[in-house]
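Quick one:
INPUT:
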């Protein structure tokens, strides 16, 4: 029996209320447990309503939870490896070297513009926003802090650029998934998507260029303190840049993400032994130790928080890392979010909500707007962009065919909503990951991710023109 739409909205309302209470009571610390509790309580309400009113068996819920968590298992492992790479890249001197040279090259006035372009190029080559943010994004954040750029603006530029490549790169898993889910050719999908993505990126870069002009004041004294602190604490060497170079080679050879991240962490650890042995000894708590103490230092760097005293407080905060342990709150949140998404799918409540939307769709603009709204809604409800992409495509595939539209319009509408809005929602896998990596709450950086929230608007605007041409063509043929 199909759940009534009003009943289906109850678990969603419970989630919103509980998350509001969690954020009001705990602020940014809500991700440390309160948000997880909110997701589990909303899941419990969904299960209770389904089992008592619609007699849904517990086995259905259990199987759905197993599937959604199983689908997220690869992301969890990647997340832990990102925690490792964050620690090893920092302590090996890779990120400090990037910051050191970046401070001497980049101008505050053009920093936001350049950061967005750099991240866009890196993500275009890698096909991964997560890898881009965890590597070059972390270095750019450090440079931005030293140049006096407000952190939310810097994070907005990093994520905007990162998701440009994640959205249009043929190496991106979301790009491939959207094309296959809508049953369209990959490169046809990318070509069609450029019609909305390029204008959105141009607007985004214009905003960052104009905003950056405000930050051209003198920062020589602060920059000198950063440079001095980095020189005294790390062995700054151009050789450390071999680590990102080798990582780029692995990516170019299309090495799987897990293998690439693991290999990159291992290479960075070797680099740390060669160039930063004194730093590793300090982390291990020994100044005159042997090889075992260095090994201890590397392991600490990989799995838990590390702190390096540079003599300059802002820099101390910048070069501190969390390792795999720093990702555990996010892993916990992902498990709870996947549980919620699983029970909403198993109960049929998710499809009940979206079926109501389809009743009001009678033309092209309405169809694209409904797809866009559903992509965002599915991110909120299922907490995962992959599930959102698959469900959006499956729900609207027949509607696009009936109205005579090419499947690439569906795939573009799906990516312009589900893929790019995921990092703007605090409890999605992307929102949690980017917030954890960069150390900035999702709701703080979200307003500055211009590419991400302009994309859904752009695809709806373009649908007006597409709809006019399509309707005219249909009228001429009939």
């Amino acid at each position: 029996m199909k759940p009534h739409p009003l009943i289906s909205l109850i678990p969603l309302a419970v989630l919103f209320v509980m998350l509001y209470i969690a954020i009001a009571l705990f602020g940014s610390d809500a991700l440390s447990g309160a948000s997880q509790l909110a997701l589990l309580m909303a899941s419990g309400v969904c299960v209770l309503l389904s089992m008592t009113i619609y007699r849904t068996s517990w086995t259905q819920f259990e199987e759905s939870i197993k599937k959604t968590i199983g689908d997220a298992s690869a992301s969890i492992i990647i997340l832990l490896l990102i925690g490792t790479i964050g620690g090893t890249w920092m302590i090996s001197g890779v990120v400090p070297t990037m910051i050191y040279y970046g401070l001497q090259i980049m101008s505050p006035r053009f920093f936001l513009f350049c950061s967005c372009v750099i991240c866009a190029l890196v993500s275009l080559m890698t096909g991964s926003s997560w890898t881009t943010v965890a590597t070059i994004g972390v270095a750019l954040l450090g440079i931005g802090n030293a140049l006096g750029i407000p952190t939310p603006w810097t994070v907005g530029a990093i994520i905007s650029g990162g998701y440009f490549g994640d959205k249009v790169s043929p190496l991106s898993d979301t790009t491939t998934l959207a094309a296959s889910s809508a049953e369209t050719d990959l490169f046809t999908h990318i070509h069609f998507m450029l019609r909305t993505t390029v204008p959105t990126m141009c607007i985004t870069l214009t905003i960052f260029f104009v905003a950056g002009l405000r930050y051209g004041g003198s920062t020589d004294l602060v920059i000198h303190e950063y440079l001095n602190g980095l020189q005294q604490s790390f062995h700054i060497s151009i050789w450390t840049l071999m680590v990102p170079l080798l990582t780029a080679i692995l990516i170019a050879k299309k090495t799987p993400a897990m293998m690439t991240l693991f290999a990159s962490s291992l290479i960075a650890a070797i680099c740390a032994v060669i160039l930063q042995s004194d730093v590793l000894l300090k982390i291990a708590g020994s100044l005159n130790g042997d090889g075992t103490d260095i090994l201890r230092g590397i392991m600490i760097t990989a799995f838990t928080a590390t702190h390096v005293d540079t003599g300059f407080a802002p820099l101390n905060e910048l070069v501190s890392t969390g390792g795999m342990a720093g990702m555990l709150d996010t892993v916990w949140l992902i498990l709870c979010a996947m549980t919620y998404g699983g029970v909403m799918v198993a109960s049929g409540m998710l499809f009940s909500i979206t079926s109501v939307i389809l009743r009001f769709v009678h033309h092209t603009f309405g169809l694209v707007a409904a797809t866009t709204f559903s992509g965002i809604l599915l991110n909120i409800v299922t907490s995962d962009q992959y599930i959102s992409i698959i469900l959006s495509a499956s729900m609207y595939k027949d509607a696009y065919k009936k109205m005579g539209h090419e499947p690439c319009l569906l795939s573009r509408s799906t990516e312009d909503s589900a893929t790019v809005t995921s990092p703007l929602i605090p409890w999605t896998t992307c929102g949690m990951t980017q917030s954890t990596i960069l150390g900035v709450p999702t709701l703080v950086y979200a307003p500055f991710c211009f590419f991400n929230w302009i994309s859904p608007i752009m695809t709806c605007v373009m649908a007006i023109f597409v709809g006019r041409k399509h309707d005219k063509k249909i009228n001429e043929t009939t």
